[in-house]
Amino acid sequence: MMQRTAETSPRFKARTTGAAYLFYFLTAIFAQLLVNHGFALYGLTANLIATAFYIGLTLLFYFMFKPVNKSLSLVAALFSLVGCAITALNLFNLAAQVSPLLFFGPYCLLIGYLILRSIFLPRFLGVLMVLAGLGWLIFLTLPPTSHLSGYLEALGILGEGLLMLWLLVMGVNAERWREQASAVKSRS
Questions:
Q1: Rg of the Cα atoms in the chain
Q2: Could you tell me how far CA 107 lies from the centroid of its own chain?
Q3: Which whole-number Å values give the CA distances from 130 to 57, 59, 64, in the listed order?
């Protein structure tokens, strides 16, 4: 029984990561709806919960991509955690309104690169995440009224949304994940 659980764990962990991503998306959308309809306190609470989901997602991604490149996975996690901290501080007007996209853009770029270097996820997801990261960074430089803003937001949501769906439905190729993790252990 224990052997079977160990064999399925990379796929299960990937699906758990996808679920955390889904809960983040749903909670963030719900928070925005609450704020837009005048329920600021409930929106604040939902945004804090969404941030907690993203912190969990960050840690899950760190462990998923650790076999690809431990150092780069850590750097990516640090970018995301700083973005989460700024998000939380912004909710209480404590971070001089620094945009968390300044950190989430590079995070998406790094996750995209790690996917491209992995052998357990399809490369098109890495390309989409790199494009999402670039999109978030370009979005920061545009005026809010720019006609490109909506397209860039859509690009970011598409990249992250497809990664989330892939992880939920397909997970990772468990055999290849183990192969990559074993290769790292043998080099150590």
A1: 17
A2: 8
A3: 18, 19, 18
10-13 contacts: CB < 8 A, separation 24 or more?
10/120, 10/171, 10/172, 10/174, 10/177, 10/178, 11/171, 11/172, 11/174, 12/171, 13/60, 13/63, 13/64
pLDDT in tens, 45-104: 999 999 999 999 999 999 999 999 999 999 999 999 999 999 999 999 887 778 999 999
Start-to-end C-alpha separation, the chain: 30
Task: Quote the longest CA-to-CA distance of the chain.
Answer: 57
- Helix ranges (DSSP H) in 66-95: 70-91
Locate all alpha helices (DSSP H) within 66-148, ordered by sequence: 70-91, 101-117, 123-141
In sequence order, which residues have a C-beta less than 8 Å from that of residue 30 and are 6 or more positions away? 46
What's the pTM?
0.90
Q: Are 77 and 94 in contact (CB under 8 A)?
A: no
